[in-house]
Amino acid sequence: MSESGRGVKETDVSSTRRDVARFPITVRNSSGRVDRTAVRSVLGICLEAESVQGDASIGLLFCGDRTMKELNAQFRGKDKTTDVLSFPEDPEPSSPVVAESGPFLGDIAISLPQCFRQAGDQSVDPGEELVRLLVHGVLHLLGYDHIEMEERKQMEARERVCRRRARSRGLGPGMLVTSSRPGAREARR
Predict the structure, then answer these.
(1) Minimal CA–CA distance to 58: which of 114, 101, 12, 126?
(2) CB-based contact 30:39 (threshold 8 Å)
(3) DSSP per residue, 18-48
């Protein structure tokens, strides 16, 4: 993630190949092991599906419920955890997404414990739920929303396209597994 006052530092830089693109990924919680290469591929698939050109970059934080609850309270005024939050770098809808040097699109935070819970509730592999959350987060960074019914339909249609492309490349199952470390806990700041 970027140095944007959120207390998380960038850990990687973008690559030119979309299918193995490198995006900054920070893990602040060890409740699950994340296949970072597969995550980067999902991000690249979303950007490709939305015709984002150049070496766009996205900051990604995998965290626990405590951190997610803090972020949700600070930025949305909701004192509870959630599954995914997106923080667009430039929220103006008229801003061009395409830039020659590649834009920094923003940050995405995903609660791994919430991802595991939702996967269990839906009887799907946690990796499949992770793909859903990644896609949802990226589309928010690109200006999609789901407040109004028409916006929701458009966003859901784009989510289906991205998830289908990810599935066709074998992404989803196995991308996220429960940590084998006993007593794994979110790191204190």
Answers:
(1) 12
(2) no
(3) GGG----EEE---SEEE-HHHHHHHHHHHHH
Quote the tokens at residue 105: 């699109």
* Domain CATH for 64: 3.40.390.30
pLDDT per residue as tens digits for the range 33-77: 888 889 989 999 999 999 987 778 888 899 999 999 999 999 999
Q: Is residue 7 part of a domain?
A: no
Residues 6+ apart with CB under 8 A from 150: none
Q: What is the pTM of this model?
A: 0.77
Host domain of residue 32: 18-171
The Cα 100–Cα 50 span in angstroms is 16
85 within 8 A of 141, measured Cβ to Cβ: no
Plot region of 97 (φ>0 → left; ψ -120 to 50 → alpha; else → beta) = alpha
Residue pointed to by tokens 């667009």: 88
At 115-169, the pLDDT tens digits run 999 999 999 999 999 999 999 999 999 999 999 999 999 999 999 999 999 999 9
176 found inside a domain = no
- Compute the distance between CA of residue 124 and CA of residue 53 in angstroms, rounded to an integer: 32
Q: How far apart are the first and last CA of the chain?
A: 16
Which tokens belong to 128? 């499949």
Task: Check if the beta carbon of residue 6 is closer than 8 Å to that of residue 107.
Answer: yes
User: Half-sphere exposure (CA, 13 Å, Cβ side) for 124?
Assistant: 15
